[in-house]
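Troubleshooting entry. Yesterday's outputs looked truncated, so today I'm pasting the complete records for two proteins to confirm everything comes through intact. If either block looks cut off, that's the bug. Protein one:
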Amino acid sequence: MKILLNRKPVEGPWGGGNHFLIGMIEEAQRRNHEITFSLEPDIDAIYLHDPRPDELGISINEAYRYKQYKPSTFIMHRVNECDARKGTQGVDEMLRQTSSVTDFTLFVSNWMKNYHVEKGWKCQNTMVFINGVKKDHFYPREKINNGKVNIVTHHWSSNELKGFDIYNLLDEWIDNNPDFTFTYIGREQGKFKNTKVVSPLFGKALGDELGKYDVYVSASRFDPGPNHVLESLACEIPTYAHSEGGGSVEFSGEDFTFSSMEDLEKILLTKNYSLNSMSPVDWSVQMNSLFNQLELKVGHEKIKNPLF
């Protein structure tokens, strides 16, 4: 099977979408499938990481024209975006229109699926595909053990909706609460005064740093399928998410939420934190499941269109 990806993975500290691309390539190679990043005559499946074009120049428009040329071509679209996520306009409608010409939709959480289905999603063939983690990178580590409660979060984006309203309040709060520390790993806004800031990390280096802390806080809002929460859970850190966190709440659990800094303060001051119930699985397991589905669906399309 030849699969076209309309995005290339990048090296470095990026989000779950980049990990997904890497996982797809690794699993395809393991199964002796061919990956391409350009339109060629014999493509069996097109994976849309984003229906908009980038430097590769392949959008939903090019994918749809290719399917008209070769009807058996299977178009799969991973949905990890919405207007609520970054306060944009027009993204929801663009994605909904894309759904009218795709064969298969991967939603990165049940929250993401419900969000778009309520807005009139067209593609009926859908699957909730929660990101995996590299289990050899993210696992429990020895704690700092400095006599304090060490709080951590990490993001590769500095967008305000990643939760900086809460993080800035937490930065002020720890100045008056010496039994606590707060560390921010990743790209930030340069406003912290009392927070330890660690430059963006990825892979095992991130796991080594992340796993040392006692409590994880995600104040991200409307986050479709947050890898930062999954990585924290894999390190077995008690993880608390904002009640408007979207997929963050789905992953951390309803009993591990806060709606304000006052709520979070009450949680932290208990110094009694339990582990969440969700245990993320390795990327290899998730990709094996996805490719089992993909091979069946692509084979079915070829049977429907035997001349192609």
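Protein two, checking that the full record survives here as well:
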Amino acid sequence: MRVEKVGIIGAGLMGSGIAQVAAYHGLDVTLVDVDQAHVDRAIAAIRARLEREAERGRISAEAAEAASHRLRGSADITDLTSVARAEAVIEAVVEDLEVKTRIFRQLGRVCRPDALLASNTSSLPLSDLAAASGRPERVIGLHFFNPPWALKLVEVVSTASTTEETLQDALQLCRQLDRVTVQVKDTPGFIANRLLVPFIFDAIELLQTGVASAEDIDLACRVGLNHAMGPLATADLIGLDTLKAIAESMFEEYGEPRFKAPTLLRRLVSLGYLGRKTGRGFFRYT
């Protein structure tokens, strides 16, 4: 199935980033959230990013303008009728199982029978969302990475009920979006986060026990390990609240100490220091 219209549920960093990728690659996008003003700000931010990319010569001005025209917004997150005719819907709201379950239950009611229903969850059990939809065979995980317009990887996550047709439709959508895909079963953390989270937690332990400064920990990884970004800066980019939620899901599933959120991470989240999105995490951002 070739997708022409896609609904994106959630206008935060991930949702708006996925919307930008989809619009740039020729899809008509409906971006949905709880508040119209929030949706409008997200679309304005997408258009500003597209304009900057054009100014830097990375894309043409014509492509940026065309992508901007493919974006529309809606605040009907309760009834979701704005995405009823979309061939695919990608949910990218907060990592809260109750919130996501409510959305998938409604998507199952309003979407066209053959619609591909995808979640961008990075840690929650996809099978629960599939069951809530009432059409589990058409539910799949499409885990994009932050920021979606810069990082091409998508983890394609199948549940026990995902059909081969659904998997192929999801892979076709990712090809339309020019993404690199890896396939994985429905397990907390999938591939990348299951490897990344313990690495970040080891870096946090080094910081909280006074072994080294945040700057030197990240410098060692960038220069010594040839990483593009250090683990603490990566945590700030992910969002410390999101990182904590991912860890809690994995710790509940696996019970392994390496997935338990360090004390310093929990304290920063409690203080509202969530990383780049709040201007402060392990580092300060202006």
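Both blocks look complete. Sanity check on protein two: The beta strands are 5-9, 28-32, 71-74, 88-91, 116-119, 139-144, 153-158, 180-185.
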